[in-house]
Amino acid sequence: VDSGFPRSPRGFIKLARALVAAVAFVCFAASSSPGAYTSLAGMEVAITGLFFLLYLLKLDQRLSWLFWPLADVFNSVIAALFLLVCLFAVVVKTNKGTLAGGVCGLVLLVLCVVDAVLLSRKISIDGPRGTNTPAK
To answer: Are 109 and 84 in contact (CB under 8 A)?
Structure first.
């Protein structure tokens, strides 16, 4: 277990994403919003939670067949694109629960962009990734 990960900037962003997505999910579910909003927030909670556990338990080092930071960047970018739908929830604002969920969704969109930027700084294309790379 990587006990320092939750206190790192990446860990804090992941945890914040999961919590804000959970709040958005509760707001959408309680206000009887359309299913797309509720399922989008629920999937974001699940996927972000899985990535958080992946890094917390250091499974990214054990499962080295996939370049996890790049997969995480793709997840953040695609989630940000899907979360643009929450803009419609803010514009329509059929009730206060939908409005609150939409605002949480827009905050979540910003957190996804920040997460993608932090992760993209970690990725190096031409740097060594493993022990099979010859020394220069």
So the answer is: yes
